Amino acid sequence: MKTLIVWFSWGGTCKALAEQLGSTLPAETFRIARREDYPAEYGECVKQAVSEKQANARPELKDEVPDASGFGRIILIYPNWCGTCPMPVFSFLERFQTAGRMIYPICLNGGSGLASSVADIKAGAPQAAVRDGLSLDGSLAVQAHLARAVSWLD
What we know:
By secondary structure, the chain is of the alpha/beta class. The protein is built from five helices and six strands; from the N terminus they run E-H-E-H-E-H-E-H-E-E-H. The mean pLDDT is 95.
């Protein structure tokens, strides 16, 4: 079965890790992006993220979700926003056929860890097998994460 690296990134750290993993592993990649970009200014982005979380929103995605056929392993890379995944991640999970897939959550954060993100992914993809998750310090260089992520995936 093939591997799909799915990532959401606002500041670029998750994107960098996804690109590095994509260059290291035999995998395809998919960027989760909201149809309308989040504000570039941090404070405004936080306000938008909090508003979406409070509304349990499922923002419309910029790109069509890929066909799940043939993908057995999904590596999901995301930042910790409001104690969980950004809401577009849940939009993805609701549109992607997760049944029978293994999901490997990798959460980059500033010290808040995985919070409720893994439990929330399990709830959003109830027919998938979801690993416990890997918490990575978003302030460290991507190269520091790459070896740890590859080892954890094995």
